[in-house]
């Protein structure tokens, strides 16, 4: 596409053809610019000019006003010569422009070019359409706040800037043009800001100091004036631990993952770097909810010996919380001079770097090339450590260049210099034309035609390399290349002009600027934003926009919604797409699995995009990007459609947290190995993951002397005990006595059923969390290593290579790219022998181009005497090795049992007479189909990727649905990407392409119908059948079911023979969560019931009390509304714990349906419900449990009252209490205790028991009916919620009970303690209604003395 179709937003474009001045012709020119205009200056005007001669341009003065003319000559081998001329920094006005030109014959010419006009800026910018300040949480973003503005000015070339006031507590940065007159502005709240400071931003004109040309605006603050902060930070788990000085990662950087536990979060947590007061980290939600959750505060450290980082809580104001100190071990830089020579057989420069390392370290070249062990390593038994060497190939035209290198905590360089460089004839690439072929909302194919001069190598543009592999056709004059590209998300505004570059086989590199630098004689430039997106619309074109629904609950599984929208320029064939990045998706990349595609719906007469939202996401507003003429983010769309732009997810308990290890135990911490002995070593680990459940993982075993990882895969089905939510796994591997004393270390990569990951390799998978987050920094951390002491004789001689043979000629453009090799090695006669472990087999490295390599690990196939044979048989990647037509060979990782490692570089192989290179060719004749996008069984669009697939006229495509091949016409066709519209298919189908009659390979397409990962099947349970009490059954007040009586309202109880009494509000807004119900009945006196929270205990497996916490410092919050009274009480439990217990006490005035832990319950008027939650607790042992103790008390003012205590137990577990009833005469206090709670977001069993009150140190009066209930809580990591409720009942059989009391023998107690078994259907599912009962103890009655005498007397006197 010509550039003059692409510059409609520039100042203007002019063309002047055939201007003849003294014999010199200007064929045409294009004006680009000016870059910006102010009241006093016009700057950076570019003219791309084409002449009919090769000319040079001299400095030129126009009248008395000098112009700074910077000619940028593009030398091309074309009939016409093109040049780029740049003017900068001159005053506004109208000027005729002439060029002084010297032609090929040194003749001087004055050439008229143009009359240029630049009008000054006379008015300040107008600002409107300000969106509210909103927090952003995209991973990789530098600033935490953002707004969108509409800024206009009569002068279209005015460029707007932020006039920053250093005293402002909230600063604005990076004002970037977003769409037409709309701009995106990033905001940086500084530490300790106050809302009273306000958010005031001044916008001015670039190049102007005139204060009258400025506009100051006020940004709405994101919190109301009456905002009350509730955020309470409980624990911080820095990883690595605080005050750690780390070794560097890639180029002096290192990662930190700090896990923050907090409750009642309504603020933003931000970590600032104290050295620059710039945020380095924000919230990444992990687990739970804002009410009680975990968050990751990930950030990187760079170039710092030791720095302080501060955690702040930001909302209406900014408050400092705590500090961290981390550092990077600084070491002097170093340099390596490579030994280089032009190899006579290879024909190119072969270089070798040599260095000595004290230990195994991660090595990076050019930032992106990671060189893992064993590449380069040779054991140095003389000096200790390793000799590090590596050979690579580069062009013979190399004179001198430097390669950056990072070796763990060292930053250095490798210099390459040819001793006798071949100096080529200077040439430059000739890019004849370039086309953009768009096939999706974010992907396109670039087709470029380049003049053949034998020097094209790599063209890097839009963050991707186009190489010789991408050549699709060629002749004697030109070659055509096609390559697929995808649009890259901009993480922030562009502050520097980005570049792309072309390297060639002569070793030269040409740099180009997007939007300005000419790429050919046609005066074309490459646009920074690729043109022609499939759905070419802007936010201003949107006429309707809404999600249905706009709030999605993902608590119990994936959520579903649809986006309906319309635009003014409807394309009914358009395929709209929307992208939802996650908080851990790098901001400058696109994850295709998070893109959803829709179509035009003729019934709705608008576009519809179905969207699936991952389950268990943290409650939040989702950020997204809609693909239009550019990426339209949700905040920007809200500028036009308001709240309809927002999509919210809710989740009662989220899980974006990877699995965690809560316990680790080695089989043996230290093992003594005798020679000839064989044994198995390893660990038992307990993995906890709730509510998603652990799915699978990889244990990575390395040692002090063997850094080749041993990977052991395992899944939930390998658990030796437990289940996916908490299970024990055995990680084991064999060792033999022919070994070296060593220290083995366990690392893990773990996944749960919601695809959350935890890894100890956090430097490489950032941001992430460690599965050892709760073990690091504790004594258990030392258990991650196992010491092996070997008694085999010391072996100080490295093994060596005996013979080497491999494929010497390979066509890397064919379908058969099979590479084979045979490697024979031996150890010294008295050595430890060659290691046969798969992770110790030799690795062959094929090096193509400077530094790039492909590694292949060999397999052991046999031993003859002292010779050990390893073989390789593998297909190479398509096109690999095409550069230079050669690949050189390195071999490393030849290992003996004593962990001596030997290797051979290319130079070493050559000097020893072994083969050392592979000749490659690229004869792409047959089309090659590589892959297909996911296509559901219903059919649809298939995107097929490959090479030399032809075009719409040269290729014939066929598909086989199972009944033979039939022709199918592509919707889009290039050599590298083809789209087909497939019919429905339920089994595998195949496609084939005939390009000019030459058939491709068959590509198999499977119907994409993802199924959930299988889970372990819990043991089946029988549904019991129990009789219903009463005559008639359930006393006629309920229905008898297989699970007992289901009562009809208002009847209650196990036999449906009690009625709920609507008592007055028992809640007392004081400082303790105690409820007190009082009923004054003229016939039976005053009935009083009291319920309270007593204490929290940690108990050992034998049920002894390890620690007990009494509550004394409650904080009260009134959460009542019109319909119900609700109070919240919170208290830290004290001791060395940061745990907070929160008690929500709710009194129901009206009949209300309520759901908890899978049970639906109707709360009758007068019911009191307790909801007790705990934040994270540090258990002394994972086998310990907690016990929440509650007290219930009932009393009557009647002197001769009759009372009974009844307890209902679970049929499945007679020790699990399900209800209590404290009955006095015809009234009772009834309490229900569910056998399930919410443990780490999952419905889990809890145990409830009747306790001996004497151990609780709670006073008991003789005239009261007391019961103490212990609610058992299993080990958990994040949160627990238990939910008992209480109500006062009127008993229908009170007279019978009273008669029994009167008829009892004198002197015997008339209080009855009755144990009742309650039938439960399935573990984890509570019973709806009332359960069946069986009386299992004989009733005993006793007279009850008057209780709470003073209290009742007081009640009477009122």
UniProtKB/TrEMBL annotation:
Residues 654-791 form the DUF7035 domain. The keyword Ligase does not apply. Residues 1-23 form the signal peptide. Residues 799-923 form the DUF7034 domain. It comes from the Eukaryota. Residues 1091-1289 form the ComC supersandwich domain. Pfam families: ComC_SSD, DUF7034, DUF7035, DUF7949. Residues 1028-1059 form the DUF7949 domain. The chain crosses the membrane at residues 1314-1336. Keywords: Membrane, Signal, Transmembrane, Transmembrane helix. PANTHER family: EGF-LIKE DOMAIN-CONTAINING PROTEIN-RELATED-RELATED (PTHR31378), PTHR31378:SF17. This is EGF-like domain-containing protein.
């Amino acid at each position: 596409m010509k550039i003059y179709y692409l510059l409609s937003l520039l100042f203007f474009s002019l063309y002047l053809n055939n201007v003849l001045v003294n014999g010199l012709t200007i064929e045409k020119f294009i004006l680009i610019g000016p870059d910006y205009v102010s009241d006093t200056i016009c700057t950076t005007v570019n003219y791309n000019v084409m002449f009919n001669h090769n000319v040079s341009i001299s400095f030129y003065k126009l009248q008395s006003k000098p112009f700074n003319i910077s000619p940028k000559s593009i030398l091309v081998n074309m009939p016409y010569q093109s040049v780029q001329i740049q003017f900068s920094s001159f005053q506004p006005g109208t000027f005729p422009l002439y060029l002084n030109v010297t032609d090929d014959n040194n003749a001087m010419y004055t050439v008229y070019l143009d009359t240029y006009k630049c009008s000054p800026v006379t008015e300040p910018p107008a600002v409107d359409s300000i969106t509210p300040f909103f927090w952003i949480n995209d991973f990789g973003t530098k600033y935490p706040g953002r707004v969108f503005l509409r800024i206009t000015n009569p002068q279209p070339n005015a460029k707007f800037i932020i006039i920053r006031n250093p005293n402002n507590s909230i600063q604005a940065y990076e004002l970037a043009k977003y769409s037409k007159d709309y701009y995106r502005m990033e905001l940086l709240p500084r530490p300790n800001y106050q809302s009273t400071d306000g958010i005031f931003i001044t916008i001015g004109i670039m190049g102007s100091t005139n204060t009258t040309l400025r506009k100051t605006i006020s940004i709405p603050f994101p919190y109301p004036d009456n905002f009350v902060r509730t955020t309470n930070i409980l624990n911080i788990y820095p990883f690595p631990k605080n005050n750690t000085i780390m070794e560097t990662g890639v180029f002096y950087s290192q990662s930190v993952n700090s896990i923050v536990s907090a409750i009642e979060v309504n603020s933003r947590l931000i970590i600032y770097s104290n050295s620059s007061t710039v945020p380095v980290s924000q919230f990444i939600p992990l687990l739970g909810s804002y009410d009680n959750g975990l968050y990751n505060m990930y950030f990187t450290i760079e170039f710092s010996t030791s720095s302080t980082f501060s955690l702040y809580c930001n909302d209406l104001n900014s408050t400092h919380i705590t500090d961290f100190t981390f550092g990077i071990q600084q070491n002097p830089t170093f340099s390596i001079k490579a030994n280089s020579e032009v190899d006579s057989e290879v024909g190119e420069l072969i270089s070798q770097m040599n260095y000595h390392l004290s230990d195994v370290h991660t090595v990076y070249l050019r930032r992106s090339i990671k060189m893992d062990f064993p590449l380069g390593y040779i054991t140095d038994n003389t000096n200790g450590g390793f000799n590090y060497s590596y050979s690579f190939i580069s062009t013979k035209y190399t004179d001198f260049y430097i390669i950056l290198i990072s070796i763990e905590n060292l930053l250095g360089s490798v210099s390459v210099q040819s001793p006798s460089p071949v100096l080529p004839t200077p040439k430059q690439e000739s890019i004849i034309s370039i086309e953009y072929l768009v096939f999706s909302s974010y992907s396109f194919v670039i087709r470029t035609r380049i003049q053949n001069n034998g020097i094209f190598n790599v063209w890097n543009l839009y963050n991707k390399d186009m190489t010789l592999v991408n050549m699709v056709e060629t002749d004697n004059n030109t070659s055509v290349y096609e390559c697929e590209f995808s649009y890259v998300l901009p993480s922030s505004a562009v502050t520097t002009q980005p570049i792309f570059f072309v390297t060639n086989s002569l070793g030269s590199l040409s740099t180009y600027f997007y939007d300005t630098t000419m790429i050919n004689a046609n005066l074309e430039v490459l646009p920074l934003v690729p043109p022609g997106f499939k759905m070419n619309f802007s936010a201003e074109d949107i006429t309707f926009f809404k999600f249905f629904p706009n709030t999605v609950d993902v608590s119990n599984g994936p959520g579903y919604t649809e986006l309906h929208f319309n635009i003014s320029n409807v394309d009914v064939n358009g395929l709209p797409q929307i992208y939802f990045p996650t908080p851990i998706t790098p901001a400058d990349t696109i994850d295709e699995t998070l893109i959803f595609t829709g179509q035009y719906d003729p019934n709705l007469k608008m576009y519809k995009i179905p969207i699936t939202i991952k389950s268990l996401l943290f409650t939040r507003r989702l950020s997204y990007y809609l693909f239009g003429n550019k990426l339209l983010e949700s905040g920007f769309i809200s500028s036009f459609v308001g709240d309809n732009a927002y999509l919210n997810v809710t989740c009662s308990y989220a899980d974006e947290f990877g699995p965690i290890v809560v316990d680790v135990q080695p089989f043996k911490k230290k093992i003594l190995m005798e020679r000839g002995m064989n044994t198995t070593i390893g660990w038992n680990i307990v993995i906890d993951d709730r509510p998603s459940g652990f799915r699978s993982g990889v244990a990575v075993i390395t040692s002090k002397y063997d850094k080749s990882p041993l990977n052991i895969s395992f899944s939930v089905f390998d658990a030796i005990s437990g289940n996916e939510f908490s299970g024990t796994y055995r990680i084991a591997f064999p060792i033999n006595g022919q070994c070296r004393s060593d220290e083995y270390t366990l690392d893990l990569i773990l996944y749960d059923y919601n695809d959350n990951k935890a890894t100890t390799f956090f430097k490489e998978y950032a941001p992430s969390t460690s599965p050892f987050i709760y073990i690091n920094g504790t004594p258990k951390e030392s258990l991650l290593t196992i010491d092996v002491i070997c008694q085999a004789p010391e072996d100080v001689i490295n093994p060596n290579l005996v013979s080497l043979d491999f494929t010497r000629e390979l066509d890397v453009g064919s379908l058969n790219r099979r590479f084979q090799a045979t490697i024979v090695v031996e150890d010294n006669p008295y050595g430890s022998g060659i290691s046969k472990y798969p992770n110790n087999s030799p690795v062959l490295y094929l090096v193509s181009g400077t530094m790039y390599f492909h590694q292949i690990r060999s397999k052991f196939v046999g031993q003859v005497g002292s010779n050990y044979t390893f073989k390789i048989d593998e297909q190479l990647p398509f096109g690999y090795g095409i550069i230079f037509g050669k690949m050189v060979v390195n071999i490393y990782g030849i290992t003996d049992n004593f962990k001596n490692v030997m290797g051979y570089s290319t130079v070493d192989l050559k000097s020893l007479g072994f083969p050392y290179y592979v000749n490659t060719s690229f004869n792409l004749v047959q089309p090659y189909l590589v892959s297909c996008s996911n296509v559901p069984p219903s059919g649809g669009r298939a995107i097929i990727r490959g090479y030399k697939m032809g075009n719409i006229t040269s290729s014939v495509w066929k598909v086989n649905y199972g009944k033979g091949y039939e022709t199918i016409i592509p919707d889009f066709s290039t050599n590298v990407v083809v789209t087909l519209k497939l019919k429905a298919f339920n089994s595998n189908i195949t496609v084939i392409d005939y390009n000019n009659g030459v058939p491709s390979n068959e590509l198999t397409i499977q119907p994409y119908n993802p199924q959930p990962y299988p889970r372990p099947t819990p043991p089946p349970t029988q549904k019991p059948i129990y009789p219903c009490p009463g005559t008639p059954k359930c006393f006629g007040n309920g229905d008898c079911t297989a699970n007992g009586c289901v009562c009809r309202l208002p009847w209650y109880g196990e036999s449906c023979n009690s009625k709920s009494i609507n008592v007055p509000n028992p809640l007392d807004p004081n400082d303790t969560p105690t409820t007190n119900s009082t009923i004054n009945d003229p016939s039976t006196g005053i009935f009083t019931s009291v319920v309270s929270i007593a204490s929290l205990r940690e108990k050992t497996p034998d049920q002894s009390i390890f620690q007990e916490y009494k509550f004394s410092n409650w904080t009260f919050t009134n959460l009542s509304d019109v319909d119900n009274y609700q109070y919240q009480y919170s208290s830290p439990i004290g001791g060395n714990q940061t745990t907070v217990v929160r008690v929500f006490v709710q009194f129901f005035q009206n009949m209300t349906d309520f759901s908890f832990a899978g049970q639906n319950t109707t709360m009758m008027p007068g019911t009191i419900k307790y909801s007790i939650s705990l934040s994270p607790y540090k258990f002394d042992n994972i086998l310990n449990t907690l016990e929440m103790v509650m007290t219930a008390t009932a009393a009557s003012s009647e002197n001769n009252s009759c009372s009974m205590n009844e307890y209902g137990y679970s049929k499945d577990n007679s020790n699990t209490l399900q209800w209590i009833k404290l009955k006095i005469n015809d009234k009772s206090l009834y309490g229900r205790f569910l056998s399930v709670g919410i443990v780490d977001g999952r419905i889990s069993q809890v145990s409830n028991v009747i306790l001996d009150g004497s151990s609780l140190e709670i006073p008991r009066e003789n005239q009261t009916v007391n019961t103490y209930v212990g609610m058992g809580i299993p080990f958990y990591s994040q949160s627990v919620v238990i939910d008992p409720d209480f109500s006062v009942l009127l008993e229908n059989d009170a007279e019978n009970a009273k008669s029994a009391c009167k008829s009892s023998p004198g002197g015997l107690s008339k209080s009855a303690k009755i144990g009742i078994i309650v039938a439960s259907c399935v573990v984890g599912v509570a019973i709806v209604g009332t359960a069946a009962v069986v009386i299992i103890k004989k009733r005993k009655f006793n007279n009850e003395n008057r209780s709470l005498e003073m209290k009742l007397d007081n009640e009477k006197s009122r």
